[in-house]
Amino acid sequence: MKLGYFVSHGSPTILVENVKWKSTLSSIGKEIKKEVNPDVVVVSSPHFFTFSDVHYVEVSEKLECIQDYYGFPDELYKF
């Protein structure tokens, strides 16, 4: 059996705020790398989607995120 983890990123403000969840999330990643050292990491997000019946796997170096939110600090719209 393969291991699987579900970890929610929470609010997008985690990118620009110094909150405890940010360090906790970082610790989770470090522990997984140390204990499991996975060969592959799969990330699922509703911010990358298609209206087609065909499903795609994105393997680009840099992903383009759909900015489908509003009301956050201006610096978040630069990602």
From TrEMBL:
Keyword terms, alphabetized: Dioxygenase, Oxidoreductase
Keyword Oxidoreductase among UniProt keywords: yes
A GO MF label: dioxygenase activity
Keyword presence, Oxidoreductase: yes
Record's protein name: Dioxygenase
UniProt lineage: Archaea, Thermoproteota, Thermoprotei, Sulfolobales, Sulfolobaceae
